């Protein structure tokens, strides 16, 4: 369960299970497991795992029995393309067991996600111009790749948009019938629809961004009526309305950087608070979280401030599903930093709590039961 939401009041004395992915060499700690007290924010590192190169993005099924990781590489065993590994998780000790490996049929896989019904696993290949889908068995084991959705074209930035660059694959809020792929190289969100037979996916449409935006990640509002795309190259966030299944309608675009900032920076992650009141974006270079309040009447975004993440290159961050905490992962300073979220302002408040982790670039969180 990745950055999910829960209903009901906060229950104390719970424990969050964190799995952290990184840009690590095979002989380094690549995946780290952490337990965090839901009430105090105190955390302890429980395990580290090597043997996988650049496990830069993670996902987990709802019952926590399988952890999925991409290996963001250009080749695997001398063959072009990366791989995906699905690790069974021992239920008693919460330890990773030997995984099932699958080729991603594209280079530099950088994102993966399960559909809400846990029937499909989608992987975006940044340097492979394609999204690969795997059918999942009831035990979470991925079958062989069944669908490959290929992109073609380029954008105006010759260094970053010389080719398609799918940067995420996000299933829609209506049960996984639609798949949304922000393509950084094409300045579009590509939209796909599952066929009636359940085994085929076809193009359904696109949602254009401005030339040179470089869309990276996408997050839906909890009510399923809006979506937010973070644009890596233009340092902006674009709000889309979602008037009907499979259709995104562009509404507005705002800068994620403070007025007057002149340094180099790029956007990375976007997340919506579980209560649907705030949107958060990470800036790499400015090294901050940008906060936007959602107007309850109009849905418009209103800039609500910036908070330093207290580390360099916050490629990823996550919110605990109860909306209490924000955890920022810093690729260049090898640390996680904990913030408590103010319920009224939405601002992340630094808690003086940090954890050393090797080149962290993804934080997955679920309730430990």
Would you tell me the structural class of the helices and strands? mainly beta
Count of helical stretches = 0
Q: What is CATH's topology name?
A: Methylamine Dehydrogenase, Chain H
Q: What top-tier CATH class fits best?
A: Mainly Beta
Distance between the termini: 13 Å
- CATH homology group: YVTN repeat-like/Quinoprotein amine dehydrogenase
Tell me the radius of gyration. 19 Å
Using DSSP, what is the number of strands?
30
Query: What is the total domain count?
Result: 1
What CATH architecture label applies?
A: 7 Propeller
Q: Give the % helix.
A: under 10%
Compressed to H and E, one letter per element, the order equals: EEEEEEEEEEEEEEEEEEEEEEEEEEEEEE
**Strand order within the widest sheet?**
3-2-1-30
What integer is the average pLDDT?
95
Task: Describe the global form.
Answer: globular
Beta percentage is over 45%
Family: Belongs to the cycloisomerase 2 family.
InterPro entries: Cycloisomerase_2, Haem_d1_sf, Lactonase_7-beta_prop, WD40/YVTN_repeat-like_dom_sf
GO molecular function, one term: 6-phosphogluconolactonase activity
Protein name: Lactonase family protein
């Amino acid at each position: 369960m990745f950055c999910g939401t829960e209903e009901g009041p906060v229950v104390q004395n719970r424990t969050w299970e964190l799995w952290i992915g990184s840009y690590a060499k095979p002989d380094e700690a690549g995946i780290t497991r952490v337990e965090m007290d839901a009430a105090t924010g105190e955390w302890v590192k429980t395990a580290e795992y090597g043997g996988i190169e650049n496990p830069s993005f993670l996902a987990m099924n709802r019952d926590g029995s399988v952890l999925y990781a991409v290996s963001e590489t250009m080749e695997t065993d001398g063959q072009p393309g990366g791989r995906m590994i699905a690790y069974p998780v021992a239920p008693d000790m919460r330890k990773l067991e030997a995984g099932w490996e699958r080729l991603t049929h594209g280079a530099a896989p950088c994102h993966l996600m399960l559909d809400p019904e846990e029937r499909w696993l989608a992987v975006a290949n940044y340097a492979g111009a394609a999204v690969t889908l795997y059918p999942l068995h009831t035990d979470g084991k991925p079958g062989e790749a069944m669908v490959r959705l290929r992109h073609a074209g380029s954008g105006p930035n010759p260094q970053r948009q010389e080719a398609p660059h799918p940067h995420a694959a996000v299933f829609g809020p209506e049960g996984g019938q639609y798949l949304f792929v922000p393509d950084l190289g094409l300045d579009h969100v590509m939209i796909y629809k599952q066929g009636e037979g359940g085994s085929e996916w076809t193009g359904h449409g696109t949602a254009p961004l401005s030339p040179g935006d470089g869309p990276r990640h996408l997050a839906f509002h909890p009510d399923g009526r809006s979506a937010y795309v973070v644009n890596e190259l233009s340092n902006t966030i674009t709000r889309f309305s979602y008037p009907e299944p499979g259709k995104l309608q562009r509404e507005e675009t705002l800068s994620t950087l403070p007025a007057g900032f002149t340094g180099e920076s790029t956007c990375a992650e976007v997340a919506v608070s579980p209560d649907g009141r705030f949107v958060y974006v990470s800036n790499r270079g400015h090294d901050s979280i940008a906060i936007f309040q959602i107007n309850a009447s109009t849905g418009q975004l209103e800039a609500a401030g910036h908070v330093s993440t207290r580390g360099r290159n916050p490629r990823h961050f996550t919110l605990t599903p109860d909306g209490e905490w924000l955890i920022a992962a810093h690729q260049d300073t090898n640390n996680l930093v904990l913030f408590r979220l103010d319920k009224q302002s939405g601002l992340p408040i630094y808690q003086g709590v940090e954890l050393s982790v090797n080149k962290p670039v993804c934080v997955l969180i679920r309730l430990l039961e």
